[in-house]
Structures are given as C-alpha cells and as structure tokens.
Amino acid sequence: MSRRVQILVALVLTALWGGSIYAAHASGHLRFLDRLEATLTDLRTLARGVQRPPDLVTIVAIDDTVVKRGGSYPLPRADLARIVDTIVQFKPKVLGIDLLLVDRSAAIGDATLAHTLATGPMVLAAAAIFPSADQTVAPSSEGLLGALPEAERFLLPLPAFADHADVGIVNVATGQSGSPLSVPMLFRTHDKVELSFPLRVASRALNKPLTIAPDHLMLGDRAVPTDTDFALPITYYGPRRTIRTVSAQSIFDGTLDRAAIENRIVVIGAAVAGGGDFFPTPFDTLMPGVEVVATAITHLVAGDSIVRDRRVHTADALAAILLPMLLVGLLAWRRSAPGLIAAAVVVIAWAALNLIAFTHGVWLNAATTLAAAVPPVAIFAGVQLWAGDRRTQYLTARSRSLAQFQSPAVQEWLAQDPDFLATPVRQDAAVIFIDLSGFTALSERIDPDQLQDILKTFHVLIDKTSVDCGGMITSFLGDGAMILFGLPAAMPDDAARALKCAIDLHRGVERWIASLPPAIGGRLGFKIGAHFGPIVASRLGESHQHITANGDTVNVASRLMEVATQNGARLALSDTLLDAADYLGDRDSTLRGPLRTQIRGRSGTVAVWFWRDESQSRQPAAEADVAS
C-alpha cells in the first residue's frame, strides 16, 4: 500500500471516529465527557473572569439572620407575608418567590399570605418530580416539544396561593460535576407542559408574549437562543452576591432601601445554611440556588446568555471531524519536528478560539472535540514513530551493509560530497596488487565451505591491513585485491603508507599461511606488486557504481606480481614507489635490485626492487644472544 493511500485511509478513519464520538455524545452516551466539559467550562469561566451583571434583579435572601430572628425554618407564613407585602409596596416589576409553598401552615398565616399575593405581579415556584436522579427525555417522535425533560408529576403550590400568581418550575440541570450549567425553560408530564420559573418571571417582567419556535424561544420580537432541549445555558457573573442581594432582615428592621426594589425584578429565596439548595460554581463551592435562578432570569431579560444552539452544535460536529483530520494530515505531511510544531500550533489556535468564543458568548464544546482528536492523533503519531524507527533501523542496516563495500574515508567523503568522482580525476597515487598462488589448484581438492572460510579470512586480513594504513580496497579480485592510496584526496605520504601496507601484507599473509594446516598452507603462496604514478580515478557503472582507478600505473603494479614470481620473490616494488616513499631500507629486511625489466604489454623497462623479510631469520639469533 502506497504512502498516499495509507494517509487517505488514516484520514477517513479519523473522520469516522470524530463523527462517531460526536453522534454518541449527542445521543446521550459517553456521559464521562459531560464531567470533562463541566471542568473545562469552569476553567473557561475563570479565565474570562468576574463580570459586572446587568443591574436588573434583586435577591431578597432569607438568610441565617432572618432564621435566627424567627427561630425556625421554613419561615412562618405570616413572616413571609410581611416580606412580600413590604416588597409589593415598593412597586417591583415582578416578584418571584423561590420557595415551595406546598404544605399547609397556620390558617391565619396562609390566609394572610394568599391575600398579600393578590396585591402584585407574582410568580411562585413549583418543582418537577422525576422518576430518577437524572432527567429523562421524552421520545423525539412527539414533535416540537419531544426533547423536553419529562417529569412524573409537578409539585405545585397550594391552590390558595397559585390562584393569585403565575407558577413556574424551579428545577435546574446540573452536570456530573454538580454545577448547574443550564436551566430548562420548559418541562412536561404525559399530559401537560409547564414553563420554568425564570421564564415566567422574565416574561412577566418584559410583559412580552412567549412563542415557542422549533429551536429557540421568542419573548416578543426577541429571540432567546436555547439548547436543543430548550434549556438555557448559563454562565456565572462572579461569586455569590455578585447579583445584588439584600437580607430579608432589613425588612423587619425597616432599613430596606426602596431603590433596591422599585421597578426591578425581585426574587425571594433561601440562603440559610442547612436550608434550601446550594450548588458548586466556578467561583464558589456553595452558591444559593436562588442566585442560580436569578442568573437565568438576568440572562433572559438582558439577552446576554451564552449561545449553545443548533448552529453551535453544527460547529461542534465539524470541529470533532475536521480538527482531528487536520492534525493527522499535518503529522502525515511532516513526520519530524515541523509537523509536530504545526500540529501544536493548530491545537493552541483551536484552544484560543474556543476560549475567545466562550468569552464572547458562544459555548463551543471542548470535551467532545478533544475525545475526537486525541485518540486518532495519538495512534497515528505512535504508528508514525514506529514506522520511523523501523525505517531508521532499515537505513542503518543498509548503511552498515553498504559500508562494507567502501573504505571509511570514502564513506565520509561521499557523505560530504555526493558527487565525489562523478567527473574523473587525474592525480598521482600508489597502487598495490596482492594475489594468492596455488589457490585454484587447492579449490579442486578441499570442501567448498572450507575454501570459503579460507578466502574470507584472507580478505579480512587484507581489509584490516589496508584500513590501518589508510588505503582503499577498490575491489577484491577473487583470491586477490587491488588497494589504492590517494583517494579521496592525494596526500604527501601516499607512497610511504602504501609501502608500509605492502610490507605489512607480506608479513601478515606469510604468518597466516604458516598457521594453516600443512595440507593447505603447503599448497599456498602469494605475490605482491606495488607502484606509484599518475592514475585516473572515477566512478564506473550506472545503477550500481563503484570507485576504481586505471592507467599505466595500475597496469604496472599488476604486472609486478609476475615479475616477483619470475625472480623468486613475493614482493616487487617499483623504483618510483621507493623514491616517492623515501625508503632506504631497515634492519629487518633486505632489498635486492634494481632490476630493469620489461613489463608484459608495455614498451620500455621498469626498475624493480625485491623486498625480503629478515625478521624471522634473525629471531633465533636474537634469542641466542639473550641466552648467552
């Protein structure tokens, strides 16, 4: 499978994964993502910071001071009637009572409260009772209102109170973190639909008719964007009491400020420790439920709620599909650091866009997009690393394999200059030829595997000796080799190193043959020829190239092996090589010559010297001197 096809398959699988994650979460599965989204929403809220709320709502809190005065909670109905009566006298736009008036109390207290409720625009709280802790959703087949939270029944205020006021359901929707993230605007049972408490209060305050559209609500001519289940997403302005809050005790003390009530929306609710509902929010570990309700009312009246409607859900779906595809595409485009950097930049840009959208009133889902992006990107990156590691191992092995065919100096030179010897180069160089004698006859008498071992050992000896002296083996010629000194660049000591190499080869091969079994070593010999002069170095071949040298110098060095054999020697050196090496002999060897001789296939003569090793013949004498 080609790389392009692999990338295409990876992108298709990534898109399918992202779409599946979004669809599964939208269908109510993958609930663990709700907790992650709640955490990320809290972080975005904190990053946005505290905001000044529109000054539209006043909370009259029944707090610890009030309960301490009255001595009990719930507050006696007569005391509640006094609070309501005082507030009504200050002419609020509407008064919402976020208390469940579902139980009968003292007759006088209930009658007084009922009479007081009839004196102004009132909204009373009711509660939806669900079959379990989670709100169940009605089947979507029931049309426009099919997605509403479906309750078993509604817990309504006593008829004596409800007859004088509107009623709204006060339940809020909490995520798995326990923090209210939205407030349902509509509730249903099997036979009826009720408006939420915040929606009732806002509708009365605005004095606008309510219209239910397919994917949003209308208060008069103003659209109220809601989630797909007609829930109003909420964001908190700040910690508790950010929305104007006064204690109900100020009514009993006669210190209530008229300006805090007049022509405003007023909500009475419990803020007493141990009574009423409290919820964790990004700014508070415990916020009274009445302030959560007041936040929803403010959103509805001011029109500043955060948007999480069908268009936002469409954007979430696209992000869950396109962002992972983009990241995988970037990693496929550049598998090294540039690809990782580009992917990181895209992730940072997406996170910044998500935060900016949130601070500007658009709630894009972050958890679903992360769940859609992280697994395929991690898997693809892991596969890329694995494939890269395999490729590195392959290239390393291939490099090691190829390195066996060139000397270290040539390998380094080719790495620096890939065009090395692409154009032939003429220069002076030293050339050595070495060849085994009797090898062909020996190959007819011994096992091929044993013969191969002998030849391999011989080649290893040549390779080590030439590398130690800085030479380059241009080729192994069966049972011989050609060694060149002068590449990759000509050096002043090329001839001297070549001479040392020839002498070391002579001694090394002589010792190696002596170490062989007599039946083998007795049949083998060797000959070496070495010369110095001009050559032409170049690359030969097209798809499979090798570096070689040619010219008269190469031919002379090769023919010198014949001259050595004809003169009973093993190492023949040209006079030119000895002069270039400035060699004057040493105590462990002798030079015989010069012999001016004709070279086969060449006109003219060459002065040749024959080198003989004397170190072995002198060793016993040296040992005898030590003994004496």
UniProtKB/TrEMBL annotation:
GO terms for molecular function: adenylate cyclase activity. Residues 430-561 form the Guanylate cyclase domain. InterPro entries: A/G_cyclase (IPR001054), Adenylyl/Guanylyl_Cyclase_3/4 (IPR050697), CHASE2 (IPR007890), Nucleotide_cyclase (IPR029787). The chain crosses the membrane at residues 317-333, 340-363, 369-388. GO terms for biological process: cAMP biosynthetic process; intracellular signal transduction. It holds the Pfam family Guanylate_cyc. The keyword Cell inner membrane does not apply. Keywords: Membrane, Transmembrane, Transmembrane helix. PANTHER family: ADENYLATE CYCLASE, TERMINAL-DIFFERENTIATION SPECIFIC-RELATED (PTHR43081), TWO-COMPONENT RESPONSE REGULATOR (PTHR43081:SF20). This is CHASE2 domain-containing protein. It comes from Bradyrhizobium sp. LLZ17.
